Amino acid sequence: MDRTTIDLWVGIFVALGVAALLGLAMKVGNLTSSKIGETYSVTAAFENVGSLKPRAPVKSAGVVVGRVDNIVFDSKNFEAVVTINIDKRYAFPQDTFANIYTAGLLGEQYVGLEAGGEEDALKNGDKITQTQDAVVLEKMISQFLFNKASEAKSDNKEAVSATKPAESKSTDANKSADAKSTELGDPPF
Prior knowledge:
By secondary structure, the protein is α/β, with parallel strands linked by helices. It has a domain at about 35-140. It has helices at about 5-30, 135-165, 175-180, and strands at about 40-45, 55-60, 65-75, 80-85, 95-105, 110-115, 125-130, 130.
């Protein structure tokens, strides 16, 4: 093989490697095209959306049924309002639950829809009222540590109160007259 043939093959393999990295980056970045046709738009309000982003998948039973279109902050109610585009092939009941879940090791977040039992279906412009916020790992860790610190503090208080000397009993006649027995048949102290 001469030098130009080797250079040609190296160039082909480098181009294939760059194309593979580009495809992987698009897949991880959720920029690949989806087979969602005509859609209808619904909104859902969440107190915390975590790292949910526009174009994130909307899934039901593990199947992608739509995409997140827009996320805005409602300064009146102090909530994040998520606009969801759902494929018209899928009709969800009015009492559908919208939950934010985390998928995979990279922490990609998506909206999961769980159908309710109502017969009327969601229409364009409707609002999903039953939502569950994203689970924020930092918040869970801080709550766990706070609970452990509270338990340790209460354990220390119990240990200190158990080691305090018993208070001396008074021999005052009025106090002994008012004393009651703890068991039947025992004389008062």
